[in-house]
Amino acid sequence: MNMYDIILKKRQGQTLDREEIDYFVTGFTQGDIPDYQASAFMMALFFQKMNKEETVYLTEAMMNSGDILDLSEIKGIKVDKHSTGGVGDTTTLVLGPMVAAAGAPVAKMSGRGLGHTGGTIDKLESFPGFSVEMTKEEFIQHVNDIQLAVSAQTGDLAPADKKLYALRDVTATVDNMSLIAGSIMSKKLAAGADAIVLDVKTGSGAFMKELDDSFALAKTMVDIGNGMGRDTIAVISNMDQPLGRAVGNSLEVKEAIETLQGKGPEDLYELCLSLGTQMLILAKIAQDEGEARERLQEVIHNGLALKKFKEFITRQGGNSQLVDNPQLLPTAKNIIELKATQNGYVQHIEADEVGMSALELGAGRQTKESILDLSVGIELIKKVGDEIQIGETIAKIHSNEEKKAQKAMERLLKAYIFSQEKIAPPRLIYGIVTKDGVQRT
Q1: Which domain holds residue 388?
Q2: Residue, of 252 and 206, whose pLDDT is higher
C-alpha cells in the first residue's frame, strides 16, 4: 500500500476501504506522509466526496490517533452536548445544571474560545477561584458525586484532526461535509461520552449559513455517531440573531443565572429545554419528550437546577456566593446606550456583527495569546420582531475603553436592520435529525 495509489483511487471517484484510510491518517499523523501528498488527498476528497462508510472510517481513524478517555467508572449513561458555535451561546451554563439536577450525568470537556467571546471555560472563570484543571480521577469523582463536571481537555485527543485542520485551512479544503463532521465527531467520541446531542446552528451567526447545509451536516454527524455505536441526535437551531440577550463572558454568566432562576430570555430557555429533553431521553432518565421536558421545567421551578449550579461552582473551587450576588461578577466601567433613530420594528440583527462588536471591546480572542476582558460585551435590549420608538434604547455596550467602545458602536449600528412593517419573531428550532431520519418542524 502506498499514498500515490490511494490519492489516484480517490481522484478517480472510487471508494476507499478502512485500511487505506487508516494508512493515510496514521502516516500523516506520524510524519511519514508529506504535506504535499496529504494536500493532494484532501483535494481529491473535497471534489469526489466521501460516502457514509468512508466518513465513519476517517472519523474513527482520527479518534484513534490519540488518547481515548475511559469514563466507564462514571455511573449511568453519560450524555455530552456539542454546539457548532454561535453568538451569545450560553447553553452549557444553563443546560449542564438542568440536566444534572434532573438525574443525568454530565461529564463535559471544553476548550477556550477563539472568536467573539471566550468559551465555556473562560465564562466560568468569571467566578474567582474556579478551576477546570483536574486529574481524570477527580473528574470522574466530581460527576459521580454531583452529576456534573466541566474540565479542560486532558491528554492528546484526536491529534490527527489538529494536524489535518491546519493543512485544510491553508489549502481551501475546509468546506467539506465529511471533513467538517469527522473533525467535530473525532474529538467528541474520544472524550468518552456514551451518547451525544448536537446543537447544529444555522444562519448569519453560524458556521453553516444555509438551512439545507445545516441539516446535511447534522445528518452526517448523526450517521457517524450511530455508526460508531454511540446514540447521537442533532437539533437544528436558529443563529440568525444572537441567542439570548447577552454577548460577553460575565454578561452571559449573569444571563445563565437568570435563566436558572426562571427569569432568563425565552429563546435561551427554550433551546435548553429542547436539547435537555433529548439528553434525558438518551440517558434513559425519561421515556419520552413530554416526561423529559416536564422534569427539566420542574428543576427550574423548584430551584434544584440553580442549587446544582452553585454546587458545581463550589466543587470546582469557585465562589458560588456570586450566584446569589451576580453584581459582584466582573463589571465594565461604562455602559453606553444605543438609541433608536426611527420608529418601527427590528427586522434583522446580523449575529456576526454583534459578535465582532463584542470582540472589538475585548470580550474575545483574536489570537491564542489574546487576554480576555471578562467584564465587557453587548446587551441586546431589542430583538427581531420587537417594536421600537425614536430615542428608545435598543442595545447597551459594556466597555472599559472609549476607543474600543466607539468601534463597537459603529459595528453594532450596522448589525441592526429596521422595518416599518410588523415582523414575526423568528423560529428557534428547525428540526431534529436522528438515526431514523430527518424531521423538519
Answers
A1: 330-419
A2: 252
